[in-house]
Amino acid sequence: MNQINMTLPALPYAVEEAMNRLRVNIKFCGKNTKKILVISSVPNEGKSSVSVQLWKMLAEAGFPSVLVDVDLRKSMLKSRHNFSYEGELKGLDYYLSGLAEYQDVIYKTNIENGYIVPCSNLLENPSALLEDPRMKEMLDQLAEDYRYVIIDSPPLDSVADGLLIGAMCDGAILVVRSGMTSRTLIKHSLQQLERIQCKLLGTVLNRVETTSRAYSKYYGKYGKYYQDGYGYRRNDSSGK
After folding, report:
1. For the stretch 68-82, what's the b/e string if a residue is b when 16 or more beta carbons lie within 10 angstroms of its beta carbon?
2. pTM of this prediction?
């Protein structure tokens, strides 16, 4: 198996603790929750940062985890995290196009227990590839081979790709940017997930000032939402 080395930024203490709580909550979602979609309503809400950090923490906690980059239109993981590797990078786009097989597109990383299926080339219209039976076959096989499959997907309101992938997953984490995403848009995203029968595992409230009323409101309700299966979380990291 080939390897990709990647650079991950150190998180501020408060952000790391918030992500750790998210990781712990994911553990209590049950043994059958393996394929987890991380999605947002619109771009620039922080979903890719949440995807990578959640994947990293699950892997470092001893759970073999694979990160699947399904944002085939606008992925920035390769450049943002300074991927280094030997030879030609063959990612999800190669597999879905029939140019590579399952074992060819899974890479070890420098994160212990962390594996990745990267996006090697951006595509203008990947929807037809995502609808191919090979996509579901891959996710199902990854769920057999790894404890967690973390899927970084395009935003719900941008293209149909997120809904296509969500229908193949065990649950979703919706990333919401504080002060930017309207309640109407959030409600619409939740309705979309419900329509494809993709269970909402939780919501990450992103880029919140700890002194703001909004943060106090959401964080103060943490106990209630935890019991209901919904966790509101804080993560100050920037990114898509």
Report:
1. bbbbbbebebbebbe
2. 0.85
